[in-house]
Amino acid sequence: MVPMTGCTGSCVNGRCINGTCMCNAGWSGNQDIWTQDLSRWGGPNLNCPTPIHLLQVAWAVYLFFAALLWLIMPISIRQQWQKFQDLKNASKVDYWFQHFPLTFLLIIYFLVLPSLMAGSIIKLTSKDLSEVVGATTAATVVFTIVHTISPTIIGTFMIRTLQTFAFSGLDDAASAPALKSFIHAAGWLFVIAAAFIVLASTYPVVSWSKSAFEYQERHKLCAQLYLLQLVVGHFLLSLAAALMGGRVVIAMNGIISNRLDLASRTNQSDILASVASLRRTRRKVASVFVQCSLNGLVNAGLFLAMELNENWFVFIGILFDITPLITTSLSYFSVLSYTTLPTLSFLAHIAGPSA
């Protein structure tokens, strides 16, 4: 591979002097996966596309909210542990990992949020954002961990929620075969989307293994493949989230309708109270799926724009892509209410009276 010789006479946000870009104040050539600053390998600085202060503010805000969420999550974890003990005493579960809300929160608390905070700290403490994905060890390792765990968490959450309500609220048993096919199709669609996003995390590792000075075109190709794969993955994620969310809302509407009918015939106040609770749960579940779908669609569009405009490659590294943001939002819903969504563990409690 023939290395690039340097800038060709013009630099974005800088001046080309003796084949290297001298960046203006507040700008840098460091960017993720396909970095323009090759000085660490003895090469030139090819361009200055990175707004240092803007990205530092973004990482600082991300660190603040991730740390805040991490500090208050023990409240929700403690409550879910108590619920696990109740379920265990009732012989409904034997081990803590069988209580999905508790497992969900523990993985977020011990793996996802610490990785996100570590990534933010690595970025903020590096000079001119010189810790970049695909070029330095710390940023690449944290990036790979986040991209592997976050889609898995989102996938588990969505599929469990879909399965919980798959056959709820249906009076016509003849529709079950078609519904089962839909559930399998939606589930596999999300698995494929998550796999695309997870596998995209391998490109920075490939870039990391070779000098960006001697293999600049290889780094550029990895960045382009990474973006293309994320465009496809997030589009499929958006579609799967919309399908799953719609199915869950339809099923919950059926449960609520059955409860209202039962309440009108029995005049039991506790049934009406349970309907109000189900409506709140439906609103929370729907809002999460809507957020996931819209974020996935917007992110696919942004990545496509980056794919078409090389000067936007700098934004690959902003918050390590939006996938962990979606994961964080799921835990945020849990912490706000000091509990996870009851739909994931208490199907018998929710659907029982309408059976």
Structural notes for this entry:
By secondary structure, this protein is mostly helical. The protein has one domain (63-354). It contains 9 helices and 4 strands; from the N terminus they run E-E-E-E-H-H-H-H-H-H-H-H-H. The strands form 2 sheets. Strands 1-2 form a two-stranded antiparallel sheet. A two-stranded antiparallel sheet has the order 3-4. A hairpin with a 2-residue loop joins strand 1 and strand 2 (20-23). Helix 3 (137-164) packs antiparallel against helix 4 (176-200) and helix 5 runs antiparallel to helix 6. The model is unreliable at 169-174 and 338-355 (pLDDT under 50).
| Helical percentage | 55-70%
Q: Specify the overall morphology.
A: elongated
Major sheet description = 2 strands, antiparallel
Which structural class matches the secondary elements? mainly alpha
Keywords: Membrane, Transmembrane, Transmembrane helix
Transmembrane segments: 52-72, 93-112, 132-159, 185-206, 226-250, 285-306, 312-335
